[in-house]
Specification:
Strand content: under 5%
Distance between the termini: 31 Å
Number of strands: 0
Order of helices and strands: HHHHHHHHHHHHH
CATH architecture: Up-down Bundle
Largest sheet: none
Number of helices: 13
Helix content: over 70%
CATH class: Mainly Alpha
């Protein structure tokens, strides 16, 4: 294991615990301010729009000044955004908090670039998959902490997330290693678009997949309430279960699955499970069917998410990894801008099942594009021009 990897992993995991505290309860929290399903969708999208604009800038900045200072800046911004969200007394201030948090949300792509800096090429898929397990930790610990914090009042979980981000920023200043050495840092005109057709294809596939998956993230608390009578605590428990599966896949099984299937095939397998899982979710009316849908969604996401990041690092020039991962995160953020409002709108106007059926169709489109275009993960990386 490269020296410094576990420190990076812990930093990301703590960041995502804070994210996991907020996501399961944000929809119901916004309803206290009179938000409709569509408004909840726009609230999720505001975070992603800010991330869309800022992630490439943060990735580019990390290529220039180093990974560590950018991660620290992002964590401080996350703390501020969480405190503002918790203190919100009106809907516009709730939006402001989510926008601040989203603008600071480039830490994951920068952390992925840091791992790519440390790892030999052959180990990158396994280590990026292991870093992806931090998502699972976030969805395991975050909802549990948020559920307990909510006993103190609806605002308390956001304050807890803010305190956690503050502690994480201080710990990162003290312990986080710098993986981008001064001689490696670039000072050149920024890229305006991915330089490889493969990176553009991955951005498109990632965008479509995220649009589909955010249908689940943005509307499940409302869906669970209306179809299964789930409370905020029950919704948090569902996300906790999703997180446990993500930890099992990305933290343990992912490396072995890559060795057996290859990164692209595993990505395609993950998309296929998302197609089926979302379709099953649309028709789920009893708990056993819902559990099957959630398992398929969790395993599919656990295979797909680290695969796309791994493929980006394989095809990006070494001195542009932070920027390339920032572009990919930006494409994902576009999906998070488009997906939640669209899901909220069809949830309100078509039916509570409709976001999941639409998401299933979109994942099928993404799978078809991946198979049609193909991504040869063994293809050599071409260095950027000096």
């Amino acid at each position: 294991m490269p020296q410094g990897f576990w420190t990076i992993w812990t930093t990301v995991a703590l960041d995502l615990v804070g994210f996991g505290i907020i996501v399961p309860i944000l929809g119901r929290y916004a309803e206290r301010f009179g938000a409709s399903g569509l408004t909840v969708g726009f609230l999720f999208a505001s975070f992603s729009l800010a991330q869309l604009l800022c992630a490439p800038l943060l990735g580019r900045l990390s290529d220039r000044i180093g990974r560590k200072p950018v991660i620290v800046i992002s964590l401080i911004g996350t703390a501020i955004g969480s405190f503002v969200t918790g203190a919100a007394g009106v809907l516009w201030l709730l939006f402001a908090g989510r926008i601040i948090d989203g603008a600071s949300g480039g830490s994951l792509s920068v952390a992925q670039a840091a791992v790519a800096d440390l790892a030999p090429e052959a180990d990158r898929p396994r280590l990026i998959g292991l870093l992806g397990a931090a998502f699972g930790v976030g969805f395991v610990l975050g909802p549990a902490i948020g559920g307990l914090a909510a006993l103190g009042g609806p605002h308390v979980p956001f304050y807890v997330a803010g305190v956690l981000a503050t502690i994480n920023a201080v710990a990162a200043i003290i312990r986080l290693p710098e993986t981008r050495q001064p001689g490696d840092r670039v000072r050149r005109p920024a890229l305006t678009a991915p330089t490889s057709p493969i990176l553009r294809h991955l951005a498109i596939v990632g965008f479509i997949t995220v649009v589909a998956f955010t249908a689940f993230e943005a509307t499940f608390s409302l869906f669970g309430d209306r179809r299964f009578g789930l409370t905020e605590a029950s919704s948090a428990a569902v996300f906790l279960g999703v997180g446990l599966v993500l930890v099992a896949i990305q933290g343990g099984a992912y490396g072995r699955l890559v060795e057996r299937f290859g990164t692209q095939r595993l990505f395609a397998l993950g998309l296929a499970m998302l197609v089926v899982g979302l379709a099953v979710m649309a028709v789920a009316k009893v708990w056993p069917v819902l559990i099957i849908a959630l398992l398929l969604l969790s395993v599919g996401q656990g295979c797909a998410s680290p695969s796309i990041a791994s493929l980006v690092t394989q095809h990006a020039p070494p001195d542009r990894r932070g920027e390339a991962l920032g572009f990919q995160q930006s494409a994902n953020a576009v999906g998070r801008v488009v997906g939640p409002p669209a899901a909220g709108a069809v949830f309100d106007r078509v039916g509570i099942w409709s976001p999941y059926l639409a998401g299933s169709v979109l994942c099928a489109v993404a799978l078809g594009l991946l198979v049609t275009w193909g991504v040869d993960s063994r293809m050599p990386v071409v260095a950027a021009d000096g």
